[in-house]
Specification:
9-stranded mixed β-sheet
Amino acid sequence: MHRPCHTAVQIRREVRLAADSALNAGPVEEANWLSAPTLLTLADEVIEASMSVHNPTRTFDAWMYLLKVLRCSDTQQGHAPMRRRYLIAIIAGIAVLPLAALAQQAVPSIAPQVHEEMWAIPSSPVPMLAYLIRPVGGGGGPFPLVVMNHGVSLDTMQRSYFPAIEFRDAALWFARQGYVVVAPVRPGYGATAIEIPERGLFGLFFPGVGKCSDAEFREAGLAVASIDKWIIDYMSTQSFIKRNEVIIVGQSGGGWGSIALGSQNPESVRAIIGFAAGRGGHFNGKPNNNCAPDRLVDAVAEFGRTARVPMLWIYTRNDSYFGPDLSKRMTEAFRAAGGNVEYHLLSDFGGDGHFLIDSADAVQLWAPIVGEFLAKHP
């Protein structure tokens, strides 16, 4: 699952700051929501900025925030045709951003520098847009690869406004450790989420679980695993990638897909890291209400019977999707079946620890655990 939208005022402030950075424009007055004219103005300004401002990092930030606005404003305004028009324009804009966009974060200048890029992954049956970040220097590689799986949303409208990169701070951390990180926007998300049955338009959405009474958790995980294999196959053709040093990182439903991939023991994958991994959380929109917890535990045990890739699972005590009791049951079942997993249950984080990996403040909490785990599995 991905993080719900911020309030309109919060998002408006973020977008305005990003656009001001790119355009050196003056502040505009705050409002309780983003009106259609404001959305149009911000979109036009950022599109113009990408053509006129020679600061790729600021422009990249402006695009990212504007994507968040377009995704989140749907539930507050109902300007779908206008947003669809600008979503298409923004995706096109991202595609032409300079490939050498240098990440400039609020970190000490001694931090390793990285390039952020947007790629199209053509080798899979369904082409995908992917965020890619790579180290600067190191003789151009080759570098080990991290494939980062975003969460799952069952809501078509939410999927249509999915961000180009969901866990940017986590991706930056891995890149600064010397990894190339690729984070695909899976089929059924972003521009490929268009679904209007009454007009005969049906989008592709791979990891559905079907009815809760007969939830197909295993099949849903394997669907994401298939996409991971497509990404690995394509990225392994790149000269700057170490073909047999792949790490899979996933959150929530993306973490569940990572576990599923581990059950197939791909030769190139050396380790798997899951943040709040699982499926079926928030059944009927209720926190701490899993769709079919027993079936989830059975499914993870089935994965454990064949999985031999070392895994690290990180959960928090205040995860409203997969609480401590359920995550411990999953871990015990996986281990009992033969799976190799290191389990960590962290203290409460924020309002809902399910979104730990989505926060810059959380990096200092999980980075030492991840760093130690990877050092044990070179």
